[in-house]
Design goal:
about 65% helix, homodimer, EC 3.4.17.19 (chains A, B), protease (chains A, B), about 500 residues, Methane Monooxygenase Hydroxylase, Chain G, domain 1, three-stranded mixed sheet, mainly alpha
């Protein structure tokens, strides 16, 4: 006799399978965290193997036909809550997408990714794009193939964009980046015509331990829960989460550059607050996961820029900072400090760009990726294409491939469609922050007294608790009353930089 | 058509399966290491769940019938190397033992272990054995059942002893502990009649950072490879290995007690050198694993006691130590220091015992375990039984259950048969060290100049590289020319302590 399971039984089957998969994936995340923080040099090879083994296991668990059957059965049940219904729908979507990939493609992509990464490393070492090009070409071919596997409406690049930001397409991005060009460029020109603020005092000796302690203090004040997370050092700062009760950030400390640690700390802190704000009751399920990369980045950028590079933030924090680093800052006024940390200057490196020119770095990558996928841009001479773009949009000359087309790891990993989420994050952040300001009249005043509680609660209630329940578009409309609108970023930038530069 | 695989193909199937299992088990070890070193408080619950999930996966992989078939097929192949043959034989033995356990027993043991551990924690908090007793009783019943599942020759306790030290039985242990009583007791009495060396200077303020740095220095000098391992802090010192290229030790630092960090560091260093000395080419296979717990402990004890509490060791190290901690040691001579670190004094706590009285602590646990399993000792009033033993063998009065029968975690974990390996370790260590001294005439002289290279090479060649190829008995005979013989420990103790105490 074939006993029909109740919805509660089925859902429980589904949930326990998903938790098991999450356990394996989070174990991989622990191995990855350790790899970037504490792993001794010789341990790298077998660590790579261990991660591959667990990844294979996680993949096997998530392609298990029983899971598919359970999801299919649940889909037709009427007595699910809205959250349960959403979890089932999203898991089924993930499951079916996962099953679209032919084994041969997965194997080829895995091999090419490994080869491509090593070629990129070698190319950087030798400062020569030519070393990277053949593998990048192979990767682009595979990515084109992937667009057919995944399917798409309109432009093939949409398929890849959707992998990182569901619902986004080139129409939206073309509009957004057209706005960037038409609105942001004049502001940048106006800024360029003004004298540069002095920021030399940020590049003095700031002792390591004092910086480290200062970073911890900022995180604590933001609301980062050190009982549910920690900070460590790594070469490149990152945030990783093993569940909302164990979220880890890393930072780096450059004794000759105070900015390096400080805003990476606030940035990662913003990511971490999002992860700590996800519901542990939804552990392993879509509604317990972040909405998208763009929304994730909105949280880090909101804290880093809208809050952490704002005047109100430093009205509160600067006196203590000045005291802590009296050698460097005792003769620097709050206004001078505020201007210095908001210096706008076109540069070569995306990761070191200010919050305005940053979006030209992203736009260049977006244009190149779109072109590579549709075939209008070739990997041949991509270094020259890159350099032309940098001249055109940022008016900087790229001295060599290492400082140019080879600067990011993303393409060597096969991450095409990822870059735009960085800009989307900033634009969502500005739009969210404007909504928060409308809804909390004393927000700036709170921040000027070091009280971020209301802001964090607002982010928790409006964004964090929802997980993947809403797509980024839906979430944006729900929280701000309208779809993504570049105007909010532009208004923010205009008001802030007009003040700083006296425009 | 059924294609018969070549031996090389079969062995490769076997090896890749075992490597995969090792990857999962080592991932569990990473999660465990992180749990003891860096895990934030709230992360504990889901970490436990993650470890359980991976343990289940490792268990499933190791009970896979295909693995059994491959092992069976390999067993009849003639064209295996001696090492391959041994790997296959040991894996098959492990595999078949694993399969002996009925699922119901595994579930009951798992549940009881969890309950028993929590009861033990509660009992310690309330300082009351009565809280622990019912669960301990249940655990003992399950352990009795396990002896029948595993099967045994002679005494049922042999089945459990073999889980930790293959080939050992109560005949050997009864002989060894009879020797402990007849030979060691008179020495202890002679020592007790002499004035106690002053060791108060060890319990002064030794700054944390300086101690930590000193521990790292000792590890480095021993030959610990920091490119293939690291040291961190934890509440209880331990060694864990994820493969020979990633071996981690932990220590603790008590600012009021120099001994605490120093000898735990050398002890764990000894364990770690063993793990770093296993063959990475045998990763995942029995010949890439440690021979037994007793042999593992022989490595830690050899470094901790035979080397690290020896006069030669401090002839080299003391001048620098004295300089580093001048506040504490500038007026303490090498001889006074050497006497202080070898203070013999019966005490309540096994983990704090000196290297002589230590074995009475182990003997008491051995007698109790043997009695519990054969039924001649009852869990009822076991605290009183314990206290009587401590009075009888160590002449100390146990003030309460926490300082007595509740002091060790082992029984709450179901680890019956584990304790004897601690003593075996010391006895093997003395026997190995005597052999090393016979074979390397200038060993003491080398140590007195801070050169441990030859000793480490000797341990590598004679012990580490063999992995589980030999049982501890076989290894002992091979390395020293005879089976385990308590005489070597006694000779070592007699010579050393006669000198120190002027007996």
């Amino acid at each position: 006799m074939n006993i029909i399971k109740t919805t509660a039984e089925l859902y429980s089957d589904y949930q326990s399978k998903m938790e098991k998969i999450a356990d394996v994936r989070n174990a991989i995340a622990v191995l990855g965290w350790d790899q970037e923080t504490y792993l001794p040099g010789k341990g790298a090879a077998i660590r790579g193997q261990q991660i591959t083994t667990l990844s294979t296991i996680a993949h096997e668990l998530f392609t298990d036909a029983q899971l598919g059957d359970t999801l299919q059965a649940l889909q037709s049940r009427e007595d699910l809550t809205a959250t349960q219904k959403k979890n089932v729908a999203l898991s089924l979507e993930d499951y079916e997408k996962n099953k679209k990939y032919p084994a041969a493609f997965v194997a080829a992509l895995s091999q090419t990714t490994s080869d491509c990464y090593h070629a990129w490393m070698k190319a950087r070492k030798e400062n020569s794009y030519a070393v990277f090009e053949p593998l990048l070409e192979k990767m682009v071919q595979l990515k084109k193939e992937e667009t057919h596997i995944l399917g798409y409406t309109g432009h093939p690049y949409n398929a890849l964009l959707n992998e990182y930001e569901k619902g986004i397409n080139i129409q939206t991005l073309d509009t957004v980046f057209a706005d960037v060009k038409t609105s942001l460029s004049p502001l940048l020109q106006a800024i360029a015509a003004k004298p540069k603020p002095n920021n030399a005092f940020l590049q003095q000796h700031y002792p390591k331990d004092a910086q480290w302690q200062y970073g911890l203090k900022l995180l604590k004040e933001m609301g980062f829960d050190f009982e549910a997370g920690r900070q460590d050092l790594s070469e490149h700062p990152f945030t990783t989460s093993f569940n909302p009760h164990d979220v880890r950030v890393t930072t780096r400390v450059d004794e000759q550059d105070f900015s390096n640690m400080t805003w990476s700390c606030i940035h990662e802190g913003g990511h971490a607050l999002y992860e700590q704000g996800l519901l542990i009751s939804e552990y392993g399920l879509p509604c317990g996961e972040a909405a998208s990369l763009g929304i994730h980045e909105s949280q880090s950028r909101l804290w880093e820029n809208n809050v952490g590079r704002g005047l109100a933030y430093w009205q509160y924090n600067y006196p203590a900072l000045q005291k802590e680093f009296a050698n460097n800052l005792s003769n620097v006024s709050l206004e001078e400090f505020y201007h210095a940390i908001n210096l706008v200057q076109p540069s070569l490196q995306r990761t070191e760009a200010d919050e305005l020119t940053y979006h030209f770095h992203v736009m260049i990558r977006y244009e190149i990726e779109k072109g590579l996928i549709e075939g209008s841009v070739s990997t041949k001479d991509l270094n020259h294409t890159w350099n032309q773009y940098y001249k055109q949009y940022l008016n900087v000359d790229v001295p060599n491939d290492g400082a140019g087309v080879l600067q990011d790891i993303h393409w060597s990993h096969g991450s095409f469609g990822y870059f735009p989420t960085y800009s989307l994050g900033s634009f969502y952040a500005a739009q969210f922050y404007a909504a928060a300001q409308r809804q909390m009249k004393d927000l700036s005043q709170n921040i000027a007294t070091g009280d971020y509680h209301a802001l964090l609660q607002w982010l928790r209630n409006n964004i964090h608790v929802h997980g993947r329940f809403y797509t980024s578009n839906e979430l944006c409309e729900k929280v701000t009353g309208e779809p993504l609108n570049f105007k909010y970023f532009m208004d923010y930038a205009q008001a802030k930089y007009a003040g700083i530069y006296g425009i």
